[in-house]
Amino acid sequence: KIVQKEFTYTAATDKGKQESGSIFADSIEEAKKILEDSGLISVILEEVLVGRENPFAPYYTPSLLVNTKTK
Fold first, then answer.
1. Residues facing residue 17 across a β-bridge
2. Per-residue pLDDT reduced to its tens digit, 42-65
3. 31, 32, 41, 53: least surrounded by Cβ within 10 Å?
4. Rounded to an integer, what distance in angstroms lies between the CA atom of residue 19 and that of residue 11?
5. Rounded Cα distance, 46 and 6, in Å
6. Is the CA virtual torsion 19, 25, 30, 33 positive or negative?
7. In terms of Cα–Cα distance, which of 23, 58, 57 is closest to 43?
């Protein structure tokens, strides 16, 4: 089985109300079909990318140690 991808969406209901959220599906086409079959229209989808842009960057920024002692 293919690992499902996560997509964020913004769409409108048939009454014009805007909805947004996330959905898991095998492909962007399947995600769009699922949302349209649930009654949403004007669906805008974007795949949520897994991982980090720079895998070698630290997860945190070390704080600077400042010596506050005075003589």
1. none
2. 889 999 987 767 767 666 655 555
3. 53
4. 5
5. 9
6. negative
7. 23
